[in-house]
């Protein structure tokens, strides 16, 4: 569809029309901004294109905006400014995406600019930087300080310098803004904004023979001429071995990577430089895709009879339903079924999006997918650089990538012909974004995206969310279940270890029960691998003085500081505050300051002491910050270079290792008794998923040991029996009794302020107004959350329950937003922050 201004308003005379564009700006303001379109841009500006615009007082900021609407009506209430520049010849944002932005801003109660800011990779957003240049009209009528004279002397040598460059010239202690302000006042310098687009294509420098030597006769003459220059002749011969110009002259235009000719140290760089200088060779640059090195030969996927039947059942369900829930136990081979469905969708000429909850999970699955789909597949997640994400974005627009695998942010990619969306591990909380806005759930956004593009959605999980399973039971989703593991593999044996009893018998060694240590030792002797799960990172959750009970706490948040032994520091996992470990208690001076509790780092440390011969790795947020850290850890473990892998919940999700026969689970009680209405469901999901990593191949029965202080807990028996249906029936009755999802929608409002009294005042006023309109049963709070202070702001939560069948959710949200605006416009409460989290977890 042609969405240019000339097409939209072709019936109007050009000289009589002033064109305007409504733009989405990446700022938290609940409206679009209207800008005037310069005449020269009218032919090229289109809906969905990016533009550069001035913004703010005196046009002091430069922003990247997206065109949402084109028209010829000037704005009311303000003078429209001109668009500075158009960045795209063709739109990089589709009409479906614009519709998605609008829906998300309304549904998740945030600004459309917030959605755009999260959706677009930062490489597609323009950065502006203040630059300073010498004013050629300045004739030194003013007295200058020595620093000013020095800066002016340097500025004369350069077209312009940045604030950062001027800061280096002034040195530490120099006030650069003050100096620049003084020079501007004296009209000695000009300050301007230099705009740069962040995305930079990957360029590869190549080399080729000059056209004069492409013909065989001229090439022979060249080689004869170089006989007295053997090094130069060898460089030419090496080129000809890679590019046989004498046989096919046209190959020369593609050239050869310059690095190939520089591999041998004996061939000096100067020889190649001389040949280029003498126009024997010429250099040129080409754009190279960043994912070209990852390509793997294709391999055929063969389904078992059970898998083939499941795939057929899913396709049959798609005939009647747009959304199908695929409930397949751990190790049942869901990925192979997904591949079969993806191949069918691509063969039908449509696009496919495959969502995964964790970057760690993409690492292993991507390799399997690349063996099948090669360079047809794009990969999209936050560990990729800005440039890599932009290349995938543009690859979807151009049609290069018909199939993309990625984490939650991949729902924002510019698809326009989706046929299938797969949401793997659909129950995972990682699909929900908590900060910043929009606080969206990728599974729900994917379903809306599929609805607009008439695509099918497959939700896959071994432990589906209660909400999804309920929808399937009600007939709103299709349901396909697979309870057979791939091949002849069987589910692992699960044992409960009573740590309370072992402590009484003094058979515990640090955090390890004797039963777990015995199994770990046996596994080592059999040269089989073990996974150990503890959902808490760091060495110890807090440090405490044995004499006065002082506990190390964060100065900004109401939490204890976590001890990290490797870095020898105490760290806050909420605000990032760090401090050194105290040698003595800062309150009483005692030297008896001890660590309490344990995290993954401590388990790794203790394992290394108990099993010094074992090769141990840890996978948590602290060890996977680097770009390729996930991949390296998984490759080492998969390759058999590691005996034991210690990790947090990121090791529970879909990872597939042939040689893992033992899983140990620590601190299960903390998961089960967490104060949340979803705690039982989450504990079942997490413990079942991590248990499913064991014994995934035929002939090797896996074993799982769960350490608990109370083996009689009902939830543990259901995990042993893999009784998801039993869990569902109990939990769904509880949800209905207390009006929790799926029978209601939840909206959590968090009120924040640096003064606790003001925060409470705003929260109580808001809760009272909402209660008056919605009733006491629907409004809970305000209450202090588990962590009541974060980054020196005091928090209060209000929870709102909206029945799905009885209430107009859209109208309720509008009413809530009006009451929030009343609070924020109150003179005494303006500094209060109120965050709305729709469908909170």
Automatic annotation (TrEMBL):
Matches recorded under SUPFAM superfamilies: P-loop containing nucleoside triphosphate hydrolases
Molecular function terms from GO: 3'-5' DNA helicase activity; ATP binding; ATP hydrolysis activity; DNA binding; zinc ion binding
Signal peptide (from-to): none
UniProt entry tagged with the keyword DNA-binding: yes
EC nos: 5.6.2.4
Gene Ontology biological-process entries: DNA recombination; DNA replication initiation; DNA replication, synthesis of primer; double-strand break repair
Binding site for Zn(2+) 1: 545, 548, 585, 588
A GO CC term assigned to this protein in UniProt: primosome complex
UniProt-listed Pfam families: DEAD, Helicase_C, PriA_3primeBD, PriA_C, Zn_ribbon_PriA
Coiled coil: 510-537
Cofactor note: Binds 2 zinc ions per subunit.
Domain Helicase ATP-binding positions: 315-482
Keywords of the record: ATP-binding, Coiled coil, DNA replication, DNA-binding, Helicase, Hydrolase, Isomerase, Metal-binding, Nucleotide-binding, Primosome, Zinc
Residues the entry annotates as binding Zn(2+) 2: 554, 557, 572, 575
Names of required cofactors: Zn(2+)
Keyword Nucleus: no
PROSITE patterns: HELICASE_ATP_BIND_1 (PS51192), HELICASE_CTER (PS51194)
Positions of the Helicase C-terminal domain: 580-740
InterPro entries tied to this protein: DEAD/DEAH_box_helicase_dom, Helicase_ATP-bd, Helicase_C-like, P-loop_NTPase, PriA, PriA_3primeBD, PriA_3primeBD_sf, PriA_C
PANTHER family: PRIMOSOMAL PROTEIN N
Xref: HAMAP family: PriA
Family: Belongs to the helicase family. PriA subfamily.
Subunit: Component of the replication restart primosome.
Its biological purpose: Initiates the restart of stalled replication forks, which reloads the replicative helicase on sites other than the origin of replication. Recognizes and binds to abandoned replication forks and remodels them to uncover a helicase loading site. Promotes assembly of the primosome at these replication forks.
Protein name: Replication restart protein PriA
Source organism of this protein record: Fibrisoma limi BUZ 3
